[in-house]
């Protein structure tokens, strides 16, 4: 039976994609060219250095490896400056109401994010104290789809993987949950998150009792 929830951060609780775009755009503008939101779609799920290579190629600019590191650092500083200004207004629809239900049921909650800026973001949106455990990029050595982040979350909460339910918006995140031996709730599109046990477009109107009944019933099949 499910006794603990593990939440991914980006795309489930907040959406920081716009801030990554703005930070890259600022860097590109400083180099004398621009990138569009459409172009930015190529960068989603791509590492920082690979994203930088794509942007530099787009701008027709060649730099040394040393300069690349400096540019990547500049982008991250731009990003941190933007996310440091995040507020409760940035919490995605339905999250607040769903967390009220979670607390009423006394379900333990952990964050399972590869972001090293997770605590900064949670503090900005006023949700740092809502989590019983926070596993972020500073505590893990392997990114998703490796199960490390969720296994550590379960361990810190004191539950077995089978007792944990993961909330994820990414294919790699759902795979990470499955490899950890956990059930997964997909937040997004069913035709994309095909391996998730249940999929919702967002957390708006999701009833925790209905959700737990559905997932626990599947555990009995």
Automatic annotation (TrEMBL):
Its cofactor is Mg(2+). GO terms for molecular function: beta-phosphoglucomutase activity. It catalyses: beta-D-glucose 1-phosphate = beta-D-glucose 6-phosphate. Its EC number is 5.4.2.6. Gene3D superfamilies: HAD superfamily/HAD-like, Putative phosphatase, domain 2. It holds the Pfam family Hydrolase. Keywords: Carbohydrate metabolism, Isomerase, Magnesium, Metal-binding, Phosphoprotein. InterPro entries: B-phosphoglucomutase_hydrolase, Beta-PGM, Beta-PGM-like, HAD-like_sf, HAD-SF_hydro_IA, HAD_sf, PGP-like_dom2. PANTHER family: 6-PHOSPHOGLUCONATE PHOSPHATASE (PTHR46193), HEXITOL PHOSPHATASE B (PTHR46193:SF18). Belongs to the HAD-like hydrolase superfamily. CbbY/CbbZ/Gph/YieH family. This is Beta-phosphoglucomutase. The gene is pgmB.
């Amino acid at each position: 039976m499910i006794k603990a929830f593990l939440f991914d951060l980006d795309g489930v609780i907040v959406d920081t994609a716009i801030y990554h775009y703005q930070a890259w755009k600022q860097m590109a503008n400083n180099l004398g060219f621009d990138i569009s939101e459409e172009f930015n779609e190529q960068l989603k799920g791509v590492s920082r250095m690979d994203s930088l290579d794509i942007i530099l190629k787009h701008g027709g600019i060649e730099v040394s490896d040393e300069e690349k590191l400096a540019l990547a650092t500049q982008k991250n500083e731009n990003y941190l400056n933007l996310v440091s200004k995040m507020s409760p207004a940035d919490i995605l629809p339905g999250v607040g109401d769903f967390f009220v239900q979670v607390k009423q049921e006394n379900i333990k909650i952990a964050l399972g994010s590869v972001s090293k800026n997770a605590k900064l973001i949670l503090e900005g949106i006023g949700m740092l104290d809502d989590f019983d455990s926070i596993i972020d990029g500073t505590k893990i050595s392997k990114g998703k789809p490796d199960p490390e982040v969720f296994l550590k979350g379960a361990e810190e909460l004191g539950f077995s993987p089978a007792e944990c339910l993961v909330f994820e918006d990414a294919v790699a995140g759902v795979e990470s949950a499955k490899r950890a031996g956990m059930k997964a709730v997909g937040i997004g599109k069913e035709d994309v998150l095909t391996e998730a046990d249940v999929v919702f477009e967002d957390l708006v109107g999701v009833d925790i009792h209905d959700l737990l009944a559905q997932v626990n019933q599947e555990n009995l099949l």
